[in-house]
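Quick one: structure tokens for this chain, please?
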Amino acid sequence: MTGPSIDATHAPALASWVASANLPGCEFPVQNLPFGRFRRAGAAGLEEPWRIGVAIGDQILDLAAATATTTGTAGHWPTTNTAVQTALAALAAGNLAAVMAAPKADRVALRHALSAALRAGSPQQPALTACLLPQADAEMALPCPIGDYTDFYTGIHHATTVGQLFRPDNPLLPNYKWVPIGYHGRASSLVVSGTPLHRPLGQTKAPTAETPSFGPCQRLDCELELGALVGPGNALGQPVPITEAEDRLFGLTLLNDWSARDIQAWEYQPLGPFLAKNFGTTLSPWVVTMEALAPFRGPFGRPAGDPQPLPYLDSEANRQAGAIDITLEVWLQTAAMRSAGSAAVRLSQSNFKDAYWTLAQLLTHHASNGCNLQTGDLLGTGTQSGPDAGQGGSLLELSAGGKQPFSLPGGEQRTFLADGDTLILRAYCQRPGAARIGFGDCAGTILPAPG
């Protein structure tokens, strides 16, 4: 594992010729440069193809248009780096997966080329200005094909709080501190931010009922997570050493693993999550690359008295820089708030640096039995809650299992989500000596159950 490295593309004083990228609090300054898949809003009927772009300020740099634009040598970016030329051609064709599968060195070279093109004073500004599209005028899609989705359980504070609700005397199961727990999700029901989801139907059983019943979920919840997208995959039967795991991670999105808690409580034993989880999972549209996150890495360690990871999940680089300082937030806007013109209200805030397992450990453990991860596979982190009250990453925690409703502006109360509620996840990285970067919203609105 070569580990994260800080270079000239991270310089906090670096500015862009795209003016909105330099505004305080901007999510997408020139130090970020996340990738997404988009087309012009309303272009579906025109059969306009999806294309890959880079978020910069409140704009998108259309890489298909940018690569076709004369920027020095006709039809080419001013670079002699073959890897960069290959990557730009793939992006122009709408193929982010080809870039994700490339070696880390090639991805770093591409980042440098994009940074040079978008920074203030770039000779490419005149040509690339015409290749910008306001984000407000774009329709977003999932950034790449996602063949498989695995959801882990790395948030120890979430695991402990939820465990205390159901097992007060034994909140954490014996294996939690030894093995990264996970389950295989449903890739087909992954949707991009902004996609509404119907309240799921399912089978539940009330504590006093003799038989179960079937109907709409009554305890609909969110889960505040990150999603890691795999870059280069591994062959079947070939584990990935933790020393190589970082270089096989391409980037991160926000992930909301919507959860039907009443359906989950009835069905999850003995095999685990099923229909309570696979009716929809929302991803934010922009992939923040691992390279962009380099300034926000930090030491990873375990509390005193906890077992240390087994050797296959341990390395010097992981101990030195396995943690990532990402502030995570849950916001809610009810239908009544929306009608009144009231903005969403923040329900909780936590940080990914409190996770019990690192991303490298998740990937290494996933492949440790020879499982063949593939480019674009998604690894969810599990719910990221903080250690203090009000830092829950789910409504299950914030309402104490539904027993303590919390109040919202205008006098409304919630324990779980109501029809018409819009749930928004947000995240950003910020620390002295580095430019603040964000992830963009991960939002979804709950529609009534079908029928």
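The first helix runs from residue 63 to 68.
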